[in-house]
């Protein structure tokens, strides 16, 4: 079995509206001028790097923004332009939500349980409801359509509707899978919060996580609670303080509420697990969150060694670099480090791991998927030139009310769909 990463292509409306409570980067950079073209190119460079490392790469598409259909559901009437104009005049906050490019963080698109893990032997995907934030809750509908298209040709895949909105579910960002290798039955860990901490909401509910375990028919699953300190320090998703790959759990000491019990339960179910814990005395929670050390992609290369693909910001935190040096010296499973510039996404709290949805499947199943969502070098070249032609260079906060910008975003997406061979009605 192989693991495919589906990265969200950053949409043309990428901006800094500060919409995410609890996400310190989003709050800190609110009001700044964004660079959507640069953002999309940075994301594509990461996808290319993964391909160059020999890993299969897919992409998910930016959503229709500004989302006039959503504004219509909020009572605005008329054609798309009229609806957006009225929303901007009367409820600018709603227009800002309808304009967000947050679908780029596809770790929040769905929770994925590969075939070896489920009793019925199917690949289960549950679209996240992202119910805790208005701008993110808009995503579920279009994400469902994309994932259904992508997996429709694969007989043993099932894309479930989002869970009821009463129970917040943020997708793979709060989910980790440990296994001997991708093809073996895994132990799936679902991480939730327990109510607001430090004034910040816990976005994943335990009830939602339980629902996913039942729905996906998992034989080996654990529920774990995020520590209140982690949420209060700005770990709005668990993937900001922990990441897993095959036998490795790479985590901050303060990520989980009942850490010893969790580690013991993991060791009982997967004795060969290697828990690489970063002590708070070496890297504080604040340093972990500022550097996004744990929001790295941890991947297995063809020679079996693991590579940690980190955001460039990690380099700026001396405690993190010192710890990483020691990690390499141990000669453990993580043998290589690489750093990518993803500054535009990072300023909204989205690191390398937020930008991708992992799907483990059999290599022979890959050709069954809708190939329009898979990337190769030629498509990456074409996407780069399309982005350079159509994506806005900059968006300042006051531009969000500019009808010319809305039109540019719709035109850019239409050109993208056309190039990839999609019809607007499919999505
Ligand atoms: O949900 N940021 C996203 C970042 C998501 C990161 N994903 C993972 N950790 N997997 C969020 O907070 C900012 C949008 C704004 O402020 O305009 C935003 O939605």
Structural summary, described in words:
The chain has 427 residues and is an alpha/beta fold. The chain has helices spanning 24-28, 36-52, 68-73, 80-90, 92-99, 134-137, 139-151, 206-216, 228-232, 259-269, 285-291, 318-329, 343-346, 377-390, 403-420; strands at residues 2-8, 57-60, 110-113, 123-127, 157-160, 175-178, 187-192, 221-225, 242-245, 248-252, 274-278, 297-300, 306-311, 334-340, 356-361. A hairpin with an 8-residue loop joins strand 6 and strand 7. The radius of gyration is 20 Å and the shape is globular. It starts with a strand and ends in a 7-residue tail after the last helix. The site of N~2~-(3-carboxypropanoyl)-L-arginine (SUG) has 21 residues, from loops.
Tell me what the CATH architecture is: 5-stranded Propeller
Distance between the termini: 29 Å
The main β sheet shows up as: 3 strands, mixed
The outline comes out as globular
What's the order of the H and E elements? Answer: EHHEHHHEEHHEEEHEHEEHEHEEHEHEHH
CATH topology: L-arginine/glycine Amidinotransferase, Chain A
Beta-sheet strand percentage? Answer: 15-25%
Question: In percent, how helical is the residue content?
Answer: 25-40%
CATH top level?
Answer: Alpha Beta
